[in-house]
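User: Could you write out the 3D structure of this protein bound to zinc ion? I've included everything you need below.
Assistant: Certainly. Input first, then the structure.
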Amino acid sequence: MKHLIAPSILSADFANIQRDVEMINNSLADWFHIDIMDGVFVPNISFGFPVVKAIKKHAKKPMDVHLMIVDPDRYLQHFKDAGADILTIHIEACTHLHRTVQAIKNLGMKAGVAINPHTPVNSLSEIIADIDLVCIMSVNPGFGGQSFIENTYNKIAQLKQLIESKNSKALIEIDGGVDLKNYKKLIDAGANVLVAGNTVFSSANTTQTIADLKAPNP
Ligand code: DX5
Ligand code: ZN
């Protein structure tokens, strides 16, 4: 499949959120990536439901919501109501991961599971057949603009094998430090979805940068 690009709203201009949402609508981007941080699971607080709803009002593409929060079960319905199409929770934040994944799917959303840089890929072996997406964190979650962790390539290779061996349909998403220098190598390694925050929003021409990240035949 052709890879997907999901610009991360975390790096957008919150005082001009509608402008940035419309830029993404009119670009070659595929999804909106929306980071929710609670100041407990990660050392940062991003934004909550009113902002997600405000984005949804203008967004014309799927909303890929990444929860970096403890006890996400409490909020699944709220994120559905706020407009999430894909809801990703962290394996490190879920005691009953299987139950949480089923609850997300029962609410009519796609279910993703994110793994931190220290979490082994094989910890997904008993859930991989049930999920729609794996988000490999290629930075320690909490902030945009951090540098990419090179071990991510090994994790992509391991995850590809696991997905094939379990006949899973899960997409491989890479989140953190994706830039114009590493995106081709990530796609070659097997990534299906690239999240990009800083690379898109700190560039002079955001629409063109998204087009560059979508460039064919990487
Ligand atoms: C990191 C977030 C990312 C972040 C990526 O905790 O999950 O989605 O926005 O930002 P960049 O692309 O700037 O590393
Ligand atoms: Zn994210």
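The first strand starts at residue 4 and ends at 7.
User: Perfect, thank you.
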